[in-house]
């Protein structure tokens, strides 16, 4: 079974060493020889730590980042469990997909 995973975080989130968290995650995925991954930058978003104030046309918050990858189910589950250890607040989703 093929799963697709999404990891959603803020662009300004840093790892314990002060590096962008999304780059740390991507480097970890390269080291683990994940078959593919993409990092997409959103335009705007709201979430647990993102607040849009009434009447505000824009926010000074950094945009959201989406890391998207697909692999066999066990590989995705392993990756998400490991990534959760150094990214405890990221929203992570996984769901079954079919390639065409």
Automatic annotation (TrEMBL):
One short Pfam name that applies is DUF190
Return the InterPro entries for the record: N-reg_PII-like_a/b, N-reg_PII/ATP_PRibTrfase_C, UPF0166
Q: Gene3D superfamilies given for it?
A: 3.30.70.120
Regarding protein family, the annotation reads: Belongs to the UPF0166 family.
Name of this chain's protein:
Uncharacterized protein
């Amino acid at each position: 079974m093929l799963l697709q995973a999404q990891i959603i975080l803020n662009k300004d989130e840093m790892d314990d060493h002060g590096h962008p968290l999304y780059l740390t995650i991507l480097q970890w995925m390269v080291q683990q020889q994940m078959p593919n991954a993409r990092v997409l930058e959103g335009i705007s978003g709201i979430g647990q730590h993102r607040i849009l104030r009434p009447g505000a046309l824009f926010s000074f918050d950094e945009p959201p980042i989406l890391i998207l990858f697909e692999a066999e189910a066990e590989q995705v589950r392993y990756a998400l469990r490991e990534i959760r250890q150094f990214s405890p607040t990221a929203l992570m989703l996984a769901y079954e997909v079919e390639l065409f």
